[in-house]
Amino acid sequence: MLKIFKIVALLEGVSYLALFTNMLVVKPTNVAFYKALLFPIGMAHGILFVSYIILAIMLKFEQNWDWKKFGIICLGSLVPFGTFYVDKKYLQNV
């Protein structure tokens, strides 16, 4: 299950960056294209975000993480590049 979590974390981080890129780069130049991309990117990111949190909760009990580590891992999904940091710092040695 940890391998699945690492894959979901990577995909969640990439989708978060795609959402920001769509907002910061595409929107100012082409609003129609921005609106066309917003739903599929946003939906993918939403599904991956919920999956990330559910898997983190399941792994908290399976891996016996303490609450601090669990909190940092969950907060990593809210910060750009956070999931990449979590993977490097907390999931490499597991």
UniProtKB/TrEMBL annotation:
Transmembrane parts of this sequence: 7-25, 37-58, 70-86
Q: Report the membrane topology from the UniProt record.
A: Multi-pass membrane protein
Compartments in which it is found: Cell membrane
Q: Which UniProt keywords apply?
A: Cell membrane, Membrane, Transmembrane, Transmembrane helix
Pinpoint the DUF3817 domain residues.
Answer: 2-90
Q: Does the keyword Secreted apply?
A: no
Q: What cellular-component terms does GO give this entry?
A: plasma membrane
Which InterPro entries does this one have?
DUF3817_TM
Q: At the top level of its lineage, which domain of life is listed?
A: Bacteria
What is the residue range of the signal peptide feature?
Answer: none
Instruction: Return the Pfam families for the record.
Output: DUF3817
Keyword check for Cell membrane: yes
Kindly give the NCBIfam families that the UniProt entry links to this protein: integ_memb_HG
Q: What is the protein's given name?
A: Integral membrane protein
Which source organism does the UniProt entry give?
A: Flavobacterium xueshanense
